[in-house]
Amino acid sequence: MICVFIEIRDGKIKKSSLETLAEARRRADELGWPAAAVLAGSGVEKFAPELFPHGASKVYVIDDPSLEHYAPQACAAALAEMTAMASPKAIFFAASALGRDLAPRLAARLGVGLASDCTGLSVRDGKLLYTRPVYAGKALLTLEANGSPAMATLRPNVFPLLSEPAAAQGEIASVPVQIDPASVKARVIEKVSEDGAEIDVSEADIIVAGGRGLKGPENFTLLKELAALLPKAAVGASRSAVDSGWIGHQHQVGQTGKTVSPNLYMAFGVSGAIQHLAGMSSSKYIVAVNKDPEAPIFRVADYGIVGDLFEVIPALKAALIKLFSDS
Amino acid sequence: MNISVLVKRVPDTESRIRIRQDAPGIIEDGLNFVISPYDEYAMEEALRIREARGGLVRAVSIGREDASTVLKKCLAMGADEAVLVRDDLPETYDGLRTARIVARAVEKKFPDADLLLFGRQSVGADNAQVPGMTAELLGWPHVGVVTKIEWGDGEATAFREIEGALEKVRFSLPAVLSAQKGLNEPRYETLKGIMAAKKKPIPVITLEELELTAEDLAPSITAVELSAPSVRKAGTILEGDPVEAARRLVEILHGEAKVF
């Protein structure tokens, strides 16, 4: 069995968890194993029916008041109890902020390895293999787990949801857990929004990114306006734009920022340093707009416009407004 | 407060990576190596905490003898001492094995540590798992991807980055934190610091001294293959004036690529 940890954020199941569940189901089918989902929290059983169509044949529910607010030590302890009960052969998490925090704790608790931020899974000789970018995507590493259960986190936006809904119903199993409150030494006490309810680059379908060519912080407004016209779009930035203080580092794409895989990456005034290219070249489509026809970004772009972004962006906005008002 | 900062030697982010043919790994000849950039934020924060609250800053690296170059940098930045835990394996991409070594080094050699600071991830293996695993092995709390720390009396709060927001996390000491860009601006080494660092000895701890068993050191994960990602090719340059090129681009992205 492959178990997938399901993350609930702001009262909803995270899409990256459903992507992970879909991939677990595809690999489990290949191996002849079941795929299950795990919900952990307080009052989370109500989410179980949503998980069957996305690939779970069984949902384990860990319901404990101590899990109401995310406390990694408590959550890892609870998942370890669930693991002892259900003996899964593999446990997957989405490589979300929470998955990347919780999975290492659980892996250490179980004494098993972890394949972080995988972008590809495969089955060879009846074994799961995990492929993940290293050196920010300059190389791809394929790993095999030595212990059991195998553990992995899967990068958001890479694995498709199931093309056809799986079963409408399945089994729900309640997992009783004992959590010692004294073992919990860190607890989330508040969530602070940074600048409105922005979409993070790691979860966006479309990224409009700016670099030195934007010339100053005020011009990131142009990108924000463009992103606002597009569905599920976020604003990204090159390291030089971030280091110049034009926009916060949480927008940075590249080796010391975030490695992203959106459907569309639009780079405006980004020259394309090797660190930046490493962080975004797994995007499905890349568009580059730059005055310099020799800019390295054009070597990876599917579509390029050699020109002044201050002329191209308004023209793009006009064309998008026309498109969406016509359709 | 006594702080141990865990630092790693990694290929410079500007490097091109060449892949070995004989084993899953990279060719190190000709590569420029640096301290992992996120570890610099961890080091800087440790120095600032010491400046505000006193205590000792110790830089620790797990690796081969050549890891001492990044330890020298930490000394030059202002660390009080630096220690190399000698592990001669090449990059294994195995976070659990590293975490076991770090946790045991803390228990056996640095029991005075109140705080372990890491970078959020090394920029080579990109695993982002050693800080959390080390914390779990020690039974300590861990707050990762931290951009701000507030120290109160008897309790501390860290802000960690999540998707589109920050989480405020209250934690007790001893604790493990991992630093994200934005936490601070790392200082440069001074000439005086560099000269002093040259003279400072870097004690070496062996894995035998840590009494790690074969089981502790057994790989939790095996690298099967390291390959080059597929190379993207340059596509089409859309000609014409900006208005015409933009109109054509929107048409392609909507009609052919169907991305919106």
- Structural class, judged by helices and strands of chain B? alpha/beta
Rounded to the nearest angstrom, the radius of gyration of chain A is 21 Å
> Describe the biggest sheet of chain B?
9 strands, mixed
- Portion of residues within helices of chain B: 25-40%
Specify the overall morphology of chain A.
Answer: elongated
Q: What percentage of amino acids of chain A are in beta strands?
A: 25-35%
Low-confidence stretches of chain B: none
How far apart the termini of chain A lie comes to 45 Å
Beta-strand portion of chain B reads: 25-35%
Spatial extent as radius of gyration of chain B:
22 Å
Order of helices and strands of chain B: EEEHEHEHEHEEEEHEHEEH
Rounded mean pLDDT of chain B is 96
What is the helix tally of chain B? 7
- Number of beta strands of chain A: 18
Helix content of chain A: 25-40%
Q: Could you tell me the number of beta strands of chain B?
A: 13
Topology:
The complex is a heterodimer of chains A (327) and B (260).
Chain A: E1 2-6, E2 8-9, E3 12-13, H1 15-31, E4 35-41, H2 48-51, E5 58-63, H3 72-86, E6 90-94, H4 97-110, E7 114-118, E8 120-124, E9 127-134, E10 139-145, E11 150-154, E12 171-174, E13 186-193, E14 206-210, H5 220-229, E15 233-237, H6 239-243, E16 264-268, H7 274-280, E17 285-290, E18 303-306, H8 309-326
Parallel strand pairs in A: 1-4, 1-6, 4-5, 5-12, 6-11, 7-11, 14-15, 14-16, 16-17, 17-18
Antiparallel strand pairs in A: 2-3, 8-9, 9-10
Helix pairs in contact in A: 3-4, 5-8
Chain B: E1 3-6, E2 9-11, E3 33-35, H1 37-53, E4 57-63, H2 68-77, E5 81-86, H3 95-109, E6 115-119, H4 130-138, E7 142-151, E8 156-162, E9 165-171, E10 175-179, H5 191-199, E11 204-206, H6 214-217, E12 221-227, E13 236-237, H7 242-255
Parallel strand pairs in B: 1-4, 1-6, 4-5, 5-11, 6-10, 7-10
Antiparallel strand pairs in B: 2-3, 7-8, 8-9
Helix pairs in contact in B: 2-5, 3-4
